[in-house]
Amino acid sequence: MVDLFFQALLFSFILLGIHASFGLEIVRRGIIFVDIAVAQFAAVGLALSILIFHEPSYLMAFVFSLFAGMLVALSQVKKEFAEAFIGLLYALGFSSVVLILSQTPHGMEEFLQLTAGDILFVSKKEILISGMLYAAIGFLLYLRRYLRNELLREVSFFTLFSITVTSSVKLVGVLIVFSILVAPALVANLLGKGLLFAWVYGALVNTLGILISFKLDLPTGFTLVFFHALTGILVFLTTLKKSVS
């Protein structure tokens, strides 16, 4: 049981490392729905592959998430309407997953897995592969700042983002990806802090969520989502109160 706890904690830190990096940029741009929309399209690819091939396909999930990522990149041409467009993409993806999985024998179980999977049962091999993949993506994300062409910078950002989200959704589900990406980045921005703060803050919330899920025998994935959402909302309301005063 102790091994499962530390394994889940380690993987939550790995997820936080790459997703907080993307999250700061996404929160700064004000396109919050982009994460959950792209993640949801990755889930559409996974759901469709389960229906057709009876097993999840990483390639199909990546194609769908990349397609959504490119649509989001195009939406930036009309930035004033981009968030509404991205919100509709999410609604389309979510409803598609429900419709597709309604035609599979274990639709509800598969739906819950794609929404917030159990981080406890991600294997050591998957953790190792994810760690190496995210490290490579983080390096490429750093190199992206040296690209001079604006269109190339945008395309590279959303391509790397799509690869990251596809891998994460397959392992832990849409909501965990969304909460770990948005909440630490939002809190860091609200408090005028940077990436290091987002990592430390996110690590503390991850530890709290996983500890409580073990103590109270709660679903670990949904517990993580709950505490990231709750603490993010509380910090937002606290800073809002200070602004009003």
TrEMBL record:
Keywords: Membrane, Transmembrane, Transmembrane helix, Transport. Pfam families: ABC-3. InterPro entries: ABC_BtuC-like (IPR037294), ABC_TroCD (IPR001626). It is a multi-pass membrane protein. It is found in: Cell membrane; Membrane. The chain crosses the membrane at residues 6-24, 31-52, 58-77, 84-102, 127-143, 155-183, 195-214, 221-240. PANTHER family: ABC-TRANSPORTER METAL-BINDING PROTEIN, METAL ABC TRANSPORTER PERMEASE. This is Metal ABC transporter permease.
